[in-house]
């Protein structure tokens, strides 16, 4: 754990183009060497690959990963959506977005790529769903299919052996399903179709990480069925002729643990489950809370940078501890 946290500090500094050795006042002034005291108070439940949805890593060797290609929504949006180098994850008030991100610092996938020393190519876009043709109500007209088109249009020559494809959708599909009806089976199918495309020529991808937290603490029968369909599809890719390396990470344990009573937000080090920028009393000059380091959310429904860090920790724990 200590090693991962230290690496994460280096990752954050590297993003800013600032390198330091050892413990400097710079790290302390950033207050992030211990993630401001925010830590995982749950550990991933691992399960067999088969049966009910759970956390699994079937074949991803993260020591071998040199490039991460990342698709998703605002939870993964690094502020630049064409795979190019991201802007520094620095907040310039009164703008609530650190370098275009939907949060006040680095997003989880930057934590992961920083820890691994991997190059990040991020195509994620705030507001994105899997497939716009399923969701007329999705407010922003962007989806996984667009992100794939951007990526494929670049004809990137990436080595399949050292490239991980990360896919994290579901939140906007779930919200849209409450309005447009249950098209989540087709949304799950879209994710699986796109993995099929990425694993075929010319990309020939072999390693795929799928992350989910569709209900952010809420569940529904159709949401659970959506997860199960993606999970079963991943297993088929792993066990079938393509023998893909796949991992499934369900972040619901964090949301349930923080927003529910077992173990509750205090156990993670938070003082509030609210969004800092929705401050109503004791606010700073920008209308933000005085103690953003200990808030679960930064903007409404969107993880703070400390929450992003524990999301990365959770993903790493799954990849390490949930090998099947
Ligand atoms: C990616 O997007 C950024 C910001 O819009 C732009 O400055 C950059 O030129 C783009 N890069 C490519 C390769 O399209
Ligand atoms: C997107 O949804 C439409 C409508 O269900 C479907 O025809 C299409 O195949 C889907 N796209 C992908 C890539 O799965
Ligand atoms: C969860 O469900 C409750 C009750 O229906 C609702 O008020 C809340 O907005 C939902 N939260 C999310 C993140 O969907």
UniProtKB/TrEMBL annotation:
Keywords for this protein: Signal
Signal among keywords: yes
InterPro entries named among the record's database cross-references: GDSL, SGNH_hydro_sf
Signal peptide: 1-20
Domain of life the protein comes from: Eukaryota
Example of a GO MF term: hydrolase activity, acting on ester bonds
Protein's UniProt keywords contain Signal: yes
Listed Gene3D superfamilies: SGNH hydrolase (3.40.50.1110)
Name recorded for this polypeptide: Carbohydrate esterase family 16 protein
Organism of derivation: Gymnopus androsaceus JB14
